[in-house]
């Protein structure tokens, strides 16, 4: 790892990829990778990590933005002209070649400049293919590196998944690329083999000093192998950092939830470096403004279980599962569940207490404290926003006003105002939104795209179809991702504000 | 495990209900094979080795190989079939390639357009094509050209379909891998796409080469009655000259040629993993 230089080898600038159906797979990504670094793109499926990799490889062209390699714009360079090689998800070995020919494929195409001296001692250059001897030497070296000596003549179909994987790695590395791209290369292997290959890849990276860009959805794999992890979601980079940074200091609740087990609580800053959650005030090390609503992340292994009366917070164990290395127990504090990992088992029903050290409390700015939208008033005095239409109380725009029979607003001063098509900003609290299975009930319809458990409630995001507006909802009920729901907001909970002075 | 068990139960229940074992169910097919494949073949062999007096003889084969008419007909048939097959490959490959890659062919609509003519009676199609050629004046140029055009027209869908199937089933990441390793699009085609589509070409060849040797309806329609292919010769022995023995011998020779051509293309197919040097 000492080999990582500060030189930016590849740089992505405002990189965006929009597919024909209008889906934004990669949204304005800015990132650089240093020479010799092992970078992992991590995220759930559909987060844009593979698309980003394919743009670096040259299989997809960016819709906008640029890719620089060694300072040169390669955004529109075809893949065969890039000094980058890829290990594909399903290996993509050529079935009509044997192991040797697969590995030698790139070498046979390679042309190098050779300098000669003519009779007069003058130097001249000639572009030549690699000699057969050089190719054989290089292939043998590459196969040796992946422990497949003597496999040269074997046909691809006689190899096991792990062996095919190694051939694929050898085939890419033999070309000595500046960057090696790996697209979930271990996904098809069983757990044991995957763990071995992780370490071997890491070892190869150290030995060769080639820059690796690795794509995976497996957080453990990312933490094990990478120098730097790039967490992505919905085509947007959520956080870039070292494995320890990402694990210990997640920037938002998505990252915290995605990387490892974690308790995410809603909390409030009550004083300087004091945060209140699960009904108790804890000392912490993060600085936030007083009274700010925050998300608090505590890893299950960072919570110490004590006998009742000895800890900071009392509760009752409601479940306990043996996980091999430890017990995973759930303690109930009021209505909030706290997940705890400990090597000593506490029985279900046992009254206990916990201690959390200030260092282990990670505080993040709360992502959504309320939903805010741009909307407009319709003829019927309803309000359109977030891809839907909702009943609302328009009289709140003018204190003391009321509606007459014709639907015009009469202000306290007695002025008559037509509110049709007036632009407003709309604010709705997270707890003020209800969702229902019945599409007819609500003002807008969408799918649940994300669910994060926050200790005593779920925070979910409902995304509408057409405009892709998000409703962030706090609810105690269990829903599933991709559930189709309608959004119900009681009219008195919709807070309106005028965008500009209305025309009379 | 449990699912398997219920499946097995269903199977036994099924055979109990109908009262037939698997072997018994095979009987109709065995009878069919016997009546329409094995007995006719045996009859052909018997006739081929029988002289006019009813005794065993090799005269029919000697007659075939010593007559310039039959040998030249055989050579012309093979050459016509060969030319048809080559033209079919040249037309079908690029077309199948475009169809397999193109966005235009979503849901296979474009492919259907090329396949639908196969559903129309082929004599009718041949007549229509002949009229079209006469109308454009091409028909007067050369009888052999006419026959080749007619055969290509009739048989090209049989070449398109297997090549198209192979190309659509091909893993696209192989092409990407080739580009990724530095091969130009042309090199990628010659080193990856083409070798991997050889099985499709091979089965296309079997489906075109063999029928065109015997399909004398087209040579009759397009050849102005001046081109005789081996299929026509066999037909004449049975119908016009009532010489079943000689006809059977010719049929056997044709069968041997077909088996050889099948063996050649078949070895292509099994070698598809090493056909890379093409």
Properties at a glance:
heterodimer; A: about 500 residues; alpha+beta; OB fold (Dihydrolipoamide Acetyltransferase, E2P); five-stranded antiparallel beta sheet; 8 helices; B: about 280 residues; globular; disordered N terminus; disordered C terminus
Count of domains of chain B: 2
> What can be said about the biggest beta sheet of chain A?
6 strands, mixed
Beta-strand percent range of chain A: 35-45%
State the strand order across the main sheet of chain A. 6-9-10-3-11-12
CATH architecture of the largest domain in chain B: Orthogonal Bundle
In N-to-C order, the SSE pattern of chain B is: HHHHHHHHHHHHH
Briefly, what CATH class of the largest domain in chain B?
Mainly Alpha
Report what the structure shows.
The complex is a heterodimer of chains A (504) and B (278). With 504 residues, chain A is α+β, with helices and mostly antiparallel strands. Chain A is 17% helix and 40% strand. In chain A, the strands form 8 sheets. Chain A has a 6-stranded mixed sheet with strand order 6-9-10-3-11-12, with helices on both faces. In chain A, strands 15-14-13-16-22 form a 5-stranded antiparallel sheet. Chain A is globular and about 105 Å long. Chain B has helices at residues 2-18, 22-48, 59-66, 68-101, 109-115, 122-136, 143-169, 172-180, 185-196, 198-214, 216-222, 230-239, 244-270. In chain B, helix 4 (68-101) crosses helix 7 (143-169), helix 4 (68-101) packs antiparallel against helix 10 and helix 8 packs antiparallel against helix 9. The radius of gyration of chain B is 24 Å and the shape is globular. Chain A binds chain B through residues 57-59, 78-80, 84-86, 88-90, 92-97, 101, 105-106, 109-110, 155, 157, 171-172, 175, and chain B through 171, 173-174, 176-185, 187-188, 191-192, 195-196, 272-276.
């Amino acid at each position: 790892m000492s080999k990582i230089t500060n030189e930016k080898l590849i740089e992505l600038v405002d990189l965006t990829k929009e597919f024909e159906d209008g889906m934004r797979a990669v949204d304005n990504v800015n990132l650089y990778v240093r020479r010799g670094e092992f970078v992992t793109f991590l995220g759930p499926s559909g987060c844009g990590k593979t698309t980003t990799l394919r743009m670096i490889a040259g299989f997809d062209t960016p819709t906008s933005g640029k890719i620089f390699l060694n300072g040169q714009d390669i955004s529109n360079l075809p893949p065969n002209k890039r000094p980058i090689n890829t290990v594909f998800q399903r290996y993509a070995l050529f079935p009509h070649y044997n192991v040797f020919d697969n590995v030698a494929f790139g070498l046979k195409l390679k042309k190098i400049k050779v300098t000669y001296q003519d009779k007069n001692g003058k130097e001249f250059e000639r572009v030549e293919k690699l000699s057969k001897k050089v190719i054989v030497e290089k292939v043998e070296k590459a196969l040796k590196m992946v422990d497949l000596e003597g496999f040269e003549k074997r046909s691809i179909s006689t190899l096991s998944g792990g062996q095919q994987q190694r051939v694929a790695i050898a085939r890419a590395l033999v070309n000595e690329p500046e960057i090696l791209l790996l697209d979930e290369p271990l996904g098809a292997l069983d757990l044991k083999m995957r763990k071995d290959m992780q370490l071997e890849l890491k070892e190869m990276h150290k030995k060769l000093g080639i820059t690796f860009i690795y794509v995976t959805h497996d957080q453990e794999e990312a933490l094990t192998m990478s120098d730097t992890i790039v967490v992505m979601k919905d085509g947007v980079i959520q956080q870039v950092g070292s494995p320890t940074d990402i694990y210990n200091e997640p920037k938002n609740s998505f990252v915290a939830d995605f990387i490892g087990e974690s308790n995410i609580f809603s909390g409030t800053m009550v004083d300087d470096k004091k945060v209140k959650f699960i009904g108790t005030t804890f000392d912490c090390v993060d600085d936030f403004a007083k009274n700010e609503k925050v998300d608090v992340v505590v890893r299950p292994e960072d919570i110490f279980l004590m006998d009742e009366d000895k800890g900071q917070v009392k509760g009752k164990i409601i479940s306990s599962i043996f996980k091999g290395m430890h017990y995973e127990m759930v303690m109930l504090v009021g209505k909030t569940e706290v997940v705890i990992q400990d090597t000593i088992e506490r029985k279900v029903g046992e009254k206990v207490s916990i201690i959390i050290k200030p260092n282990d409390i990670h505080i993040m700015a709360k992502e959504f404290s309320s939903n805010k939208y741009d909307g407009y008033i319709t003829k019927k005095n309803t309000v359109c926003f977030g891809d839907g239409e909702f009943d609302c109380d328009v009289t709140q725009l003018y204190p003391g006003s009321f509606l007459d029979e014709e639907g015009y607003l009469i202000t306290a001063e007695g002025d008559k105002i037509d509110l049709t098509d007036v632009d407003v900003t709309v604010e709705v609290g997270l707890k003020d939104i209800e969702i229902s299975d019945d599409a007819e009930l609500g003002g807008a319809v969408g799918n649940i795209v994300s669910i994060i458990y926050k200790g005593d409630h779920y925070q979910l995001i409902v995304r509408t179809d057409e405009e892709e507006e998000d409703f962030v909802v706090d609810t105690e009920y269990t829903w599933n991702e991709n559930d189709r729901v309608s959004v119900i907001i009681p009219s008195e909970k919709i807070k309106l504000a005028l965008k500009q002075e209305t025309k009379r | 495990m449990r699912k398997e068990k219920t499946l097995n139960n269903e199977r036994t229940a099924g055979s109990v209900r109908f009262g037939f074992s698997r072997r018994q169910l095979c009987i109709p097919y065995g009878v069919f094979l016997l009546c329409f494949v094995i007995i006719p073949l045996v009859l052909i062999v018997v006739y081929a080795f029988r002289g006019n007096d009813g005794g065993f003889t090799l005269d029919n084969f000697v007659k075939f190989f010593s007559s310039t008419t039959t040998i030249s007909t055989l050579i012309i048939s093979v050459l016509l079939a060969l030319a048809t097959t080559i033209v079919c490959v040249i037309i079908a490959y690029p077309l199948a390639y475009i169809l397999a890659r193109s966005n235009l062919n979503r849901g296979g609509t474009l492919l259907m357009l090329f396949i639908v003519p196969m559903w129309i009676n082929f004599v009718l199609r041949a007549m229509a094509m002949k009229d079209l050629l006469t109308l454009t004046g091409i028909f007067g140029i050369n009888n052999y050209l006419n026959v080749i055009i007619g055969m290509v027209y009739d048989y090209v869908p049989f070449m398109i379909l297997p090549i198209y199937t192979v190309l659509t089933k091909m893993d696209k990441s192989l092409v990407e891998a080739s580009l990724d390793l530095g091969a130009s699009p042309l090199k990628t085609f010659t080193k990856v796409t083409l070798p991997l589509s050889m099985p499709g070409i091979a089965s296309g060849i079997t489906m075109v080469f063999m029928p065109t040797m015997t399909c004398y309806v087209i040579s009759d329609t397009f050849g102005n009655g001046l081109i005789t292919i081996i299929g026509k010769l066999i037909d004449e022995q049975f119908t016009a000259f009532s010489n079943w023995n000689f006809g059977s011998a010719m049929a056997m020779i044709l069968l041997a040629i077909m088996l050889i051509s099948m063996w050649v293309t078949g070895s292509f197919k099994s070698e598809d993993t090493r056909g890379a040097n093409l």
